[in-house]
Amino acid sequence: MLDLEQFVHWFDESILIVNKPSGLLSIPDGYNPDKPHLRTVLEPQFSRLWIVHRLDRETSGLMVLARSREAHKALNQQFEQGIVNKAYLAVVYGKPAWSSLRLELPLLPDGDRYHRTRPDMTRGKPARTDFVRLSSSMSHSWLLAQLYTGRTHQIRAHCAALGHPVLGDWLYVRHPEGLTNSFKRVALHASRLQFQHPRLLTIWYLKQIPEKTCCACNCKNLRYGYC
After folding, report:
1. Contact 131/104 with Cβ under 8 angstroms?
2. Residues with catalytic annotation?
3. Mapping DSSP to helix (H, G, I), strand (E, B) and coil, where does residue 131 land?
4. Residue 90 has what DSSP assignment?
5. What is the mean pLDDT of residues 171-176?
6. What end-to-end distance do the CA atoms of the chain give, in Å?
7. Among candidates 83, 28, 77, 35, which has minimal Cα distance to 54?
8. Please, are residues 226 and 189 in contact by the beta-carbon 8 Å criterion?
9. Which terminus of the chain has a lower count of CB atoms within 10 Å, N or C?
10. Is the pTM of this model over 0.90?
11. Distance of CA 175 to the CA centre of its chain
12. Rounded-to-integer distance, Cα 159 and Cα 205, Å
């Protein structure tokens, strides 16, 4: 049972802003539509909702939902035009040699028998992620990742391609050598979201940081908290 007081950040007649927990689907499962997802959890209290964007089931963090057809249309246009600002916090394996990096690497969804998104220079779609290394320990690093495209598993696939897969992401680390499995979820959190309110027409900038510390990392220098 979700604690709606911690789950819901804001609502009015146009929008609903939530902090989606890891493990909850954004949209119905294609194979098992009876699995809980955002609308089935929230609509008993907030009535009809429209999904505007999505997060992977394993990813936690900020999402905005529409509460009217007009708001749905306005928010959809912002996402389609690429004017919504989205950034994520990730804990990754290793210590990147760079402090910041712009990665433009085409990605092909469902690119292998494991249904992973794979880099593909010929068939892949353009994908850009900007990374900033915030801090590091001996074995892990804390990254801020800003999306400029929205490919399936984009951050997870880009981190894996860089040789620094996301902690707990065993889909993209099939045979981890020397990597511990002490973290029980993908260490990826949608921490920043900026958009124009569909009715008020004001710019909303939201920032949310996980509260707990990532004990799996043993990162004493990571001041940003995770788990």
Report:
1. no
2. 56
3. strand
4. E
5. 71
6. 19
7. 28
8. yes
9. N
10. no
11. 24
12. 26
